[in-house]
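To whoever is on call:

I kicked off a structure prediction for a single chain this morning and the downstream step that reads the tokens threw a length-mismatch warning. I double-checked the sequence; it's 295 residues and nothing unusual in it as far as I can see. Pasting both halves so you can look.
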Amino acid sequence: MQRREAQVRAHTTATFALALCALVAAVCSAATPTAPVSSVDSVALTVSDLDRAVDFYSKVLTFEKVADREVSGEAYEHLFGVFGLRVRSVRMRLGDEYLELQQFLAPRGRPIPLDSRSNDRWFQHVAIIVSDMTAAYARRLFLGIDHTAIVVADTDASLHFYRDLLGMRIAGASENYGTEQEHLNNVFGAHLRITALRAAHGPGIEFLEYLAPRSGRPLPPDTLPDDLWYWQVNFCSAAPSAFESALRDSHVPLLSAGTIELGDAQLGWRKGLLTRDPDGHASLIGEGQPCSKTS
């Protein structure tokens, strides 16, 4: 009798363990796409006057203009989540890295707040590589884009999005504070937790979590791509729709109406989706010509 009870308990335990393993596997497969993003193709930002922006990036920072396109229509409305849009976009190169400058000719978005500070969570910048800072300033010797930095409220929450869902890896971490950091950020008492991430190719993404001061304002929840504080990181993926499933399973908001087929590929993307990280920073996950250099 005792041996029979022991056999039943062992069978029940084994069945429970198998069921638990199956549940864990199902949850993990639902939350993680089959492959990570292959690269960060470019960083995009919305500008009010595209010709003036191109003039600045080309003449001051020595970017080269490589493409100038204009798009409109239903597919792009669904991609950007903006009805009746007409967008002009210029692709610019510095070294091996790219910026996308985009102007919404219609509709016109809102201006960036005049009192914006470096610890507000709509703040984003790109870090340009130089071999010698003094020489670069005097002779404009700029080499490329190392990373784009974003202000985050919670590093761990951001890691879940960029590392666990998109498949980027942590490349470094530090805590920065002191007089130099305060003057660099123009924020008194700045004390930052900084985390750098990389995909297999392209510039990195750097989190700036302000441990102090904690007064940075959140990105407005109704932000759209035509607003002038809008930036997005453009990621390459062979299967954007796989990320759509993983993002929805993790309750991550989408800006676009799912994975959108862009038949004309005027911006280089054949299909893609726009999503937001925990702080509202936008990411395009796309498939198309921009990704051919890393495929």
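Update from on-call: the warning came from a stale cache, not from the record. Cleared it. Sanity check on the structure: The chain is about 30% helix and 35% strand.
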